[in-house]
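Write out the 3D structure for:
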Amino acid sequence: MLTFATSVIERRLPISGAHTTHPYEAGWAAEAVFFVQVEGDHPELSVQAQISPDGLHWVDRGGARTIGADDEIVAVELANFGGWLRLAFSGATAEQPATVLVHLALKG
């Protein structure tokens, strides 16, 4: 039987510049899916998964995903990622901010 866990990483967080989510320790999991939702009007956003061996030093994993100005949700899937996970956002500005909600679903 697989173990499953889901967590809210960011809840209705306003961003107006480059932003990274809180790191999440997930070394027990074999696969992960970040669900990124954007509320209301927002600019096109770039979302990049990042992995870390220690929660301090980060490397991009896979290609960045784009959330278009007309899109509301995107999923970012990961496998074989090591111990720590987070997302890096770009595209939001003070003139065009975004409000994001990020869930992380893990299976192991």
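The mean pLDDT is 96.
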